[in-house]
């Protein structure tokens, strides 16, 4: 994410119209737009593998899997984000065309420039969503995945998965070995400078 200093303050309606004319994607947070930066090769491959895995698993369900082009409206706000992967099984999301609001699962693939934002401010926004059950943070430089899962009590627990572990996503009733996502990837650390709101 880049600084919003060059970009205007917009209402959601202005934002939708304005972004249609842009070459890059932008998130809208507190009436300000933030350009979304590109990701590494690993970032892209991991996202595609997760989308494929989820889509195949949910093929006969009423759930929909979104990629990084699908916005999420943060419940009760005029904020819109672009997660890397999202899954909604909520019928209310079938009535909107430019975004969803009630995902049960959100995935962010981490990079050095986004990790602090994804773990901090972005999760604080997402966690207020009553439909969200699983928030998956996937490293693009290490064989490591963190799952934030909302328990029935409403409290969030965190599970750290590493080599040899099986990821369990209760939100979509799916389990898979962590190696399925990282197969044949070069996990050499990236060199990026942090830029997030």
TrEMBL record:
Protein name listed in UniProt = Uma2 family endonuclease
Positions of the Putative restriction endonuclease domain: 12-172
State the UniProt keywords alphabetically. Endonuclease, Hydrolase, Nuclease
* SUPFAM superfamilies named in the record: Restriction endonuclease-like (SSF52980)
Q: Which Pfam families match?
A: Uma2
Recorded GO MF terms: endonuclease activity
Please state the span of the N-terminal signal peptide per the UniProt entry.
none
Q: Which organism is it from?
A: Oxynema aestuarii AP17
